[in-house]
Amino acid sequence: MTDVKKKVHNFSAGPGILPQEVLKQASEACIDFDNLNLSLLEISHRSKNFEAVMQEARALAKELLGLGDGYQAIFLGGGASMQFCMVPMNLLRSEGYAAYVNTGVWAGKAIKEAQMIGNVKVIASSEDKKFNYVPRNYPIHGDADYMHITSNNTIYGTQMKNFPISRIPVVCDMSSDIFSRKIDCKNFDLIYAGAQKNMGPAGCTLVVVKESILGKTGRKISSMLDYKVHIKGESMYNTPPVFPIYVSLLTMRWLKKNGGIEWIDKKNNQKANLLYAEIDRNNLFFGTAEKDCRSMMNVTFLLNNPELEPEFDKMWKEASISGIRGHRDVGGYRASLYNALPLESVQVLVDVMKEFEKKFA
Ligand SMILES: *Cc1c(COP(=O)(O)O)cnc(C)c1O
User: Fold this and answer.
1) Does residue 10 lie in a domain region?
2) How far is the CA of 78 from the centre of ligand 1 (A)?
3) CA 210/CA 57 separation, integer angstroms
4) Where are the strands (E) in the chain, listed by range?
5) Does 338 reside within a domain?
6) How far is CA 122 from CA 80, 126, 147, 264, in A?
7) Residue 321 domain-assigned?
8) Residue range of the domain that includes 155
9) What total of structural domains would you count in the chain?
């Protein structure tokens, strides 16, 4: 099937590209899962076959992040946006406050939801420059109930390179760069990531939490919003989103089989370096993010002469490139280089940029 179809170079920001072999295995499981002659979509989540999926997915997520005892991995519905509310529900005391770093739209939404639950201090922001950098050297507030950061800012193409190390719990929205680079995750107390950027299809969110930080607010929490309830239920308090969890497992297996985070870190660096080098070399383009904050996952760039956009658009479309139109807040272009995107696709984009230069420089 894929042999005869024309290859599309998929730079979509989310839902994003998944490995071809994962898509194939996932589609097979829709028809016949585990040789049961039943679809994954029509068996009980309490069947031993699905319980095995859940167990492996929870264990593998922790393994890939390098986290062990003391942490629990659960897969929840509601998207990463649901975590904007669950995090303060579970961690913010009514007399305390939470410290947030504002690095763009997603961080801003997290702040807004936390403010509905308790006190919030925005301890650093890059709003002054339209979020084209990640703030540094801000004071860590040691008396906050927790601090919240966003490791990769999907819309602006900025990425946190160094992470705060703090006595207070550090919470990280890792939706768009989870499993993409070597990070010491032990410095985090709670990590969450919507699946659809770098892990699987939309519909589930991975939450990895250090259990010891839970249960300290004194607040009554609705069962579905309570991490402890989901942990106790082994991520099956209610019917979990079985298909997105299964596909996320397939992607994690693919990653592990190929060499894990070490391997993908190298590969992602190669891809990003190739594209940024061309953006810097080619006088018709410029990058929007400050250089030392550039994201390895979402590369944002503009044309020096926006009037040439229709010409450039025509050229990349002809090269079977898809999904590089920029977010409306930044404009121009955004090439998302998620784990499953091959280096070859980046080379195709770079070749188009060189070709464009020949024609219009
Ligand atoms: C996409 C994204 C979100 C929102 O995810 P949903 O699953 O759509 O709620 C949150 N944070 C970041 C960093 C994102 O990239």
Assistant:
1) no
2) 11
3) 17
4) 9-10, 71-76, 97-102, 119-125, 146-150, 152-153, 158-159, 170-173, 190-194, 205-210, 285-287, 298-303, 321-322, 333-336
5) yes
6) 20, 11, 10, 33
7) yes
8) 21-258
9) 2
Band of residue 4 on the pLDDT scale cut at 50, 70, 90: low
- Ligand 1 atom at shortest distance from the alpha carbon of 196: 7
> 235 and 330 share a domain?
no
Q: What is the pLDDT of residues 127-171, one digit of tens each?
A: 999 999 999 989 888 999 999 999 999 999 999 999 999 999 999
pLDDT band at 3 (very low <50, low <70, confident <90, very high): low
In angstroms, what is the span from residue 175 Cα to ligand 1's centroid?
6
Give catalytic residues, as residue numbers: 106, 173, 197
Give the number of the atom of ligand 1 that is nearest the alpha carbon of residue 79.
Answer: 7
CB-based pocket (< 6 A), ligand 1: 14, 79-81, 106, 150, 154, 173, 175-176, 194, 197
Testing ligand 1's pocket by substitution, the residue of 12, 75, 81 carrying the most ligand atoms inside 8 A of its CB is 81
> Taking the model in full, what pTM does it have?
0.97
pLDDT digits (tens, 9 = 90+) for 29-55: 999 999 999 999 999 999 999 999 999
Is residue 2 in some structural domain? no
Q: Is 192 a residue whose pLDDT tops 80?
A: yes
Distance (angstroms) between ligand 1 centre and the Cα of 359 equals: 38
